[in-house]
Please model this.
Amino acid sequence: MKKYEELTFTDDFMFCRIMQYNEDICRDLVELIIGKKIGEIISNDRQRPIEITPDGRGVRMDVYLEDDKDTVYNIEMQNANLKDLPKRARYYQSMIDVDMFERGGDYKELKRSYIIFINTRDPFDKKLPVYTVKNQCLEDSSVDCDDGVTKLFVNARSTCGIISDEMRAFLNYLSRGNADSTLTHRIDEKILEAKQNAGWKGEFMTLYEHYQIEREEGREIGDANRLVVSVDALIKSMKLSIEEACKVLNVSVQEYNEAKKLI
Model:
């Protein structure tokens, strides 16, 4: 992970802080991406958790906001080049819909929604600056299949096509860090301020420590899993006892038992 002082707008931690604590920037960025004005923001949540199933299976959204025109917006910063991005967007949308039902809604009252992924890499390798996806009848495009859902995948790697100067400047800012427009200048100023925020730096360091612990635990679990699988394979394939299998692998029975507890 980067040091706190090295974070940019494309880093999840900084992106979430700037978008939640600067409503004007959040609004202007959403309007820039979707290409129209939005209503008055009535709710703006950073990393909103939506947990639907009893086992806690759900999703944690980077930025989630609602306006007074019955529209919700989910904005995600995406650095990895994920091939399952369309299905990820579908899952996020389904979580939003189910959450509305959980709060007492009816399917007729489902709000319009925009699922926005800001990608630092081209998600579909077609060099479009923005990929806008909506439901459409393939046999007859005049058939109204509008379910109120719009998915947008922003590609920071491309400034081709017909886009506004402001959008081109934003894409250049994401990919090169050049603040050449009013919006990107404002974002850059807020990032400089954020880097002086001792409280946010403390939060980031705490998250970093948790990440390090989880990574170490993950490595331990991975090692433990490999050990158990190897011993069990010898027991099964060569009809060895636990003691004999462990001896072959030069580990003790105690290490084997402790590994089993970890997984």
Summary: The first helix runs from residue 12 to 21. The radius of gyration is 24 Å. The mean pLDDT is 86. The CA atoms of residues 12 and 103 lie 28 Å apart.
